[in-house]
Each structure stands twice: as structure tokens, then as C-alpha cells.
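The instructor's notes for this session suggest beginning with a concrete chain rather than abstract definitions. Hand out the sequence below and ask the class to guess, before any prediction is shown, which regions might be ordered.
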Amino acid sequence: MRTVICGGPRTGKTTLAHTLDAPVICTDQFADKEWSEQSDAAAIILGNAGNWTLEGITAVRALRKWLRTHPGKPCDIVIWLR
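After discussion, reveal the predicted structure:
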């Protein structure tokens, strides 16, 4: 399953991601890039096949960017934590 976990800082995104049965990709790894480049890099992951979980505060912007330029679903489920 392809899962995207979105939410604000300290809402439990990483904790939840590690309970799922898929490799976790944390958008924090893109923190060294400029603001827009962070979501560009995360959006590329949304095109990957297979099981994965993308999580982080950049994930929601990555979804928006991906949806602007691609038809279809970028993932199977989106979880929003508050």
C-alpha cells in the first residue's frame, strides 16, 4: 500500500508511519533544500511503485504538486493528523 501521512509538527506522523508495514520515507531528509525544492523532491517519490509510506510536513505540498501534473491517484490512502 502507498500511504501519505500529513499533519503539523509533532502530531505523530513518524510514530504512526513506523507502525505500518511498509518502508518509511520521511520528508525531513529534504530539509537541506530550499522550501519549494523540498516538495519537488517528495513529489517524485509519489510516482514510485510498490509499498511505501511518505510522511512529514512537506508531504501535503508534495501531494498538491504531484496532482497538478499527473493524472490518477498518487497513493492509496492519505492520513491527516491533527
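Then share the key points. The two ends are 22 Å apart (CA to CA). The first helix runs from residue 13 to 17.
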